[in-house]
Amino acid sequence: QVQLVESGGGLVQAGGSLRLSCTASGRTFSMYAMGWFRQAPGKEREFVAAISWSAGNTYYTDSVKGRFTISRDNAKNTVHLQMNSLKPEDTAVYYCATSPLTYGGSLYRAERYDYWGQGTQVTVSS
Question: 3-class SS at 22?
């Protein structure tokens, strides 16, 4: 049974920072790519960032490039999303997910992931 548990969400003022974490169990974590998605109220779930199995490749949606950094610690089965210079439009529920792929440009597609966490709320006030 694969389980993903996110943490680190909360309320922050615009311009502030948050660090999300996602701890995985039930799969050989180091063999698979990981991703972060988000869903704002009334909107579809969207890709935020992804990282290859070895952390050699990272992928970001344009709106977060230069502000967010995805990283992973395979020894701790954990992936992080460091979010800086947060904006009100970053407000959403953030989900981590694991993919059976190891790397690749298609990791922005939600259907490339087979297990998802429950999500953590991030609220950025103006």
Answer: strand
